[in-house]
Amino acid sequence: MAAGRRGWRSGSGKHTLGLLEYAEELCRYAPDPFDHVWLVFDKDDFPADEFDRVERECAAASDSACTFHALWSNPCFEVWPLLHLRYTTAPMDAAACQKTLADSLAREFGVDYRKNMGGLFALIAL
């Protein structure tokens, strides 16, 4: 999940509607309001109608103070941090993308990548 003005990011390991509920809860108790909240999750094997439902629920949860947005990665979330590290247009499935990201992180930062690892955003945002 990524949020607006302050550039705050949080990995929750949640997907689709569970991620929206998590974001709403965080926003409800945040000391400063968010203007935009982006819910980012993997495509995985979720059916298309579930993604459509998340978009509708995001629109319903949005108000004049905060707008919720659904954004899913295809084939996987790892494509986003990978593109922060290197340019590629190579076709990849999720396994190849995860391996390429792991190889890039190991080579550039000496870091062993694992799914849902903490500190990834701070590492690649330098």
Notes on the protein architecture:
This protein has 126 residues and is of the alpha+beta class. It has five helices and three strands. Strands 1-2-3 form a three-stranded mixed beta sheet. Helix 2 (48-61) links the parallel strand 2 and strand 3. It is globular and about 45 Å long. Mean pLDDT is 82; it is low at 1-9.
Weakly predicted, low-confidence segments: 1-9
Tally of discrete structural domains: 2
Q: Helix segment count?
A: 5
Walk across the major sheet and give the strand order: 1-2-3
Question: How would you concisely characterize the structure shown here?
Answer:
Helices cover 44% and strands 13% of the residues. With 126 residues, the protein is α+β, with helices and mostly antiparallel strands.
List keywords for this structure.
2 domains; three-stranded mixed sheet; 126 residues; RloB; alpha+beta; 5 helices; RloB domain-containing protein; 3 strands; disordered N terminus
Question: Layout of helices and strands, plus pairs?
Answer:
Blueprint: E1 2-3, H1 16-29, E2 36-42, H2 48-61, E3 67-73, H3 79-85, H4 94-109, H5 120-124
Parallel strand pairs: 2-3
Antiparallel strand pairs: 1-2
